[in-house]
Amino acid sequence: MSKATLIIENARVLTMDPDRPRAEAVAIGGAMILGVGSREDMDAFAGPDTRRFDAQGKTVLPGFVESHLHIFPGSLGLKLLHLDKIRGVPAFCEAVQAYAAANPDAELLVCKSAGYDLFGVGTHITRHELDKAVSDRPLVLIAPDHHTAWANTFALEKAGLINGMDVPVGNEVVMGEDGKASGELREFEAYKHVMALDSDGGRDNAGMTGIEPKGATAASRAADAEILLDGLKYCASYGFTSIHNMDGNFYQLEVLKILEDRGDLLCRTEIPYHLTPSKPLSMIEEAVEMNRQYKSDRLRSGRVKMFMDGVIDSGTAFMVEPYADDGKNCEALHTAERFNAAAIEIDRNGLQIAVHAIGDAAVRRVLDGYEAAQKANGKRDSRHRIEHIEVLNPEDLHRFKELGVVASMQPQHPPLALDFPFLPWTAKVGEARWPWSFPVQYLRDEGVPITFASDWPVADIDPMRGVMAAVMRKPWKEGHPSHASSLMQALSYYTVGGAYTGFDENRLGRLAPGLLADIVVMSHDIESLAPQDLGTARAALTLCGGEVTWEA
Ligand SMILES: [Zn+2]
């Protein structure tokens, strides 16, 4: 019998494996799990060099899978000013001026997590308030959802946006009554011009536009590797062992490869090819090439990411019926013809597809494309995904199961579930559509595979706060369905659900002999916590492939 390098004992093990849901100890040999069972049974794997870790009665789980995040913007954002707790012009000015003083050399002052209600509910943020904080250096604020940014006058002038600019459909440089840009920049194609003022040239966000950053050098790769390492450490500190990135380019893969080669890739990382609306379908060839070049145990590419629409709050999500508050609607980012053709071509190449679709019409158009791909190429185990699904039309529910589509959802995102406000989301969607908003329960009842994630840095990455939000979910109106999950359901969507979504169910997501030793020991016995306290539990020890990637 091979001897264990590590035995985790005195644990409440939740294996997520239906064959043996609970155990007391886990024996690990190198990168693999040797055994899961009672303390006595695991002792049989002990040798003279076996390390023992006393879990002190706390919960042990398979390492969490973060199936939707943006690692580069998230990693860089760890160093930036966050405005999530700031409201009102005076507090804003004070925070930004202190940040500016502390960063005298920053070529662009970037603030993250700027709420749409930063200066009051229903008050539009303009360059004039930003100018009050800083007027002689470029300043940009990014909304938590990353779909809107606001720039001060200096930045707008420097980026050539002050008199407006033609940007692709679905993006907008919002103009003020004075004929100048108001400061609000909707969607990335509008605000990327400001981000380019930064000394990193917007490399962190290049994957969002699916392009390769200009002026990348060996030095930029080395510097960016350190930034990404900070982000991966942050992920590991929350118990994540696998991450599915949702923006991508060759550059990110090259930088991550630097970390992989020196043994610092702390999470198994999957990077997609990002097919934007302006790219010709012939460029899908690049996704095939990415998949060919990157398929190691820790770093791989095999998926194409697309956006079908924007977000509800800014009115850029594509709805079947118009918005409830202003009667408006918007266009999708891809026509049906274009999307169907793309889905057929990507699917034909054996790649997975993941599409951001928030409005119910966007979800429908994506399902139409997946159906077209299945008709054209035949049914296969494709596991194409839809990201977010904030509003679903009842008529489309049955199509998920029929087409084998994975629902990739974020329990942190519903208004009031965690950190996001009630308005404007709920008013824009309107009460009639609330029962079909973030419809986890309906999808579960239908047998649709579900995976949970945060969309970090859009929302807090903490998986236990995500679990808490999922368990505590309440309807916005009495009598409406709650769409809450049980603790075990929520945990399964962060483990087995993520593994299935990544075609990894035979490697990870459960604790069973022969699977990878991707394991997290929690700070608490989480089953003993009250639902509202679930978010206090953290990772005490994280192992990826048997290696300690985090120890509190
Ligand atoms: Zn995202």
Plain-language structure description:
- This protein is an alpha/beta fold.
- The protein folds into 3 domains: 6-63 and 514-551, Urease, subunit C, domain 1; 71-206, Roll (Diaminopimelate Epimerase, Chain A, domain 1); 218-501, Metal-dependent hydrolases (TIM Barrel), CATH 3.20.20.140.
- The protein has 18 helices and 26 strands.
- The strands form 5 sheets. Strands 3-2-7-24-25-26 form a 6-stranded mixed beta sheet, with helices on one face. Strands 9-10-11-12-14-13 form a 6-stranded mixed beta sheet, with helices on both faces. Strands 17-19-20-21-22-23 form a 6-stranded parallel beta sheet.
- Helix 4 (127-133) links the parallel strand 10 (109-112) and strand 11.
- Helix 8 (218-237) crosses helix 9 and helix 16 (463-472) runs antiparallel to helix 17 (487-494).
- The chain is globular, with a radius of gyration of 23 Å.
- The two termini are 32 Å apart.
- Bound molecules: zinc ion.
- The site of zinc ion (ZN) has 5 residues, from loops.
- Residues 68, 70, 246, 455, 458 line the site of zinc ion (ZN).
Strand and helix map with partners:
Elements: E1 6-9, E2 12-14, E3 22-23, E4 25-29, E5 32-37, H1 39-43, E6 51-54, E7 59-62, E8 64-69, H2 71-77, E9 81-82, H3 89-102, E10 109-112, H4 127-133, E11 139-142, E12 148-151, H5 153-158, E13 172-175, E14 181-186, H6 188-195, H7 203-206, H8 218-237, E15 240-245, H9 250-261, E16 268-270, E17 273-274, H10 284-293, E18 299-300, E19 303-307, H11 336-348, E20 352-357, H12 360-377, E21 385-388, H13 397-403, E22 406-409, H14 425-429, H15 440-445, E23 450-452, H16 463-472, H17 487-494, H18 496-501, E24 519-522, E25 539-544, E26 547-551
Helix pairs in contact: 2-8, 3-4, 8-9, 11-12, 16-17
This protein binds zinc ion.
The site of zinc ion has 5 residues, from loops.
